[in-house]
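Bug: token stream looks shifted between consecutive jobs. Job 1:
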Amino acid sequence: MGGLKVESARNLVLALLAEAGDSAAPSETTRIFRDFAAAHADCCERSCVPGHFTGSAWVVSADGERALLLHHRKLDIWVQPGGHADGDGDLAAVALREAEEETGLPGLRIEGGVFDLDRHAIPARGSDPGHFHYDVRFVVRAGAHEGFVVNEESHALAWVPVRDIAGDPHADESVRRMARKWLRID
């Protein structure tokens, strides 16, 4: 039974990547994501040692002018909310769940399909070996209520003007890339 669930999760990821085509990232990045999923039936499980899929949320304010970033406790950088798929191949649902858990914001909603793809290295930590996160990112729009709640996974959260993120040379490159993309579509 577990094998069917794992295969089903991978098939959902492959279908999502096929639907996104090259609209979310350069074709080479998309190919790397597809090849990884095709080669690893357990690509949505943390136990997949070379890496695994994650889902994250480019959370924007109702007016689209600001993005909600969190100061990640383990990585010590400002990034978008997101997390492990933990066997769930519905990465949009993963992104939405993680955004809700990590921000405490009510009324969040996914907009559109895959917004961005980013593969990044995660350093070894304790008994966990270094590995890659194959992060599939979605736009998540906040409602009228913007009061967030900081949880144990972050030091802080902040609404930041998207234009400021796009121009900040100290911001994480993938976060700057999403800001630049957002400014072109919103």
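Job 2, same session, no restart:
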Amino acid sequence: MEEQLSKRMQSAVSNFNDDEPDFSDEEYDKYLEQEEEEEEVEISEEEMLKMLDQQEDPFVTCARLFKTVELKSLGLEILTPENVQQLKTHGYLILENVIPETTQQQATEQTMNMVSSNKLHAAGSSKSAEDDPFRDNKARTDLTTWLHHEETGALQEIMTSLFVRLGSDLSKIINLRKHWKQAEYQLAYYKGCESTPGYYEKHRDAFPDDGSNEEGEAQRRLTTICYVNHAWRQGDGGQLRIWERKSDGGQNKDIDPIGGRLVVFLSGAVDHQVMATHKDRVAITAWYS
């Protein structure tokens, strides 16, 4: 029936100079609806990223988010001008010893107490398959919870002493749509096990974004991760694997989740994953949009 209607419409278009139409208004409306349905093709995030990456290197796209400023005059607290240049050039940077070891230990203990109290849940469990048909709930094994400024203990200390100051720095060098105080904070716990290690498959936190489109929902522009695994040793696994930009060789780089280490990268450019972890692993992430 729909195929017959489509053929009639095509015939009508080819003979549009005829005085008498050979289809009714009702048929015409139905044809338009049919055409709109055919045009609406859903694609996955992975397919969309591949299309966008083919149009332009995502690192080039996201580099346009950086402000043109004199770095030495900004009064940065956490970052240095060299850090900023590394982030712009390579898309990521690594800082060491951003929080003291005592805070790391306290944050780990606080997290384990929250896990025991069932305050963390399987990541993505709040969305059903109908809400997000492309969500792969087998892509990750971590338990997570959102953190807020009302948190207490070591987690609250990390948010205020590190991420608030870091957000202020980042807002001075990157064009953000949201105020840096509106960052998203997430606590993630991976259960370490030799037989069934925790993991998170390769993914990206956002689509490439250069700040030129200010309509719609604000995308994440910067991902910052702080690790509190104070006794991490070689062989424990759980590295953060990131894929470097093509101009840097396009190779992957493995970063151990050592306590006190901070990793910052461009959300819309850097593909990353969590490698198999054989020991309990805790990370606190802040996203700035």
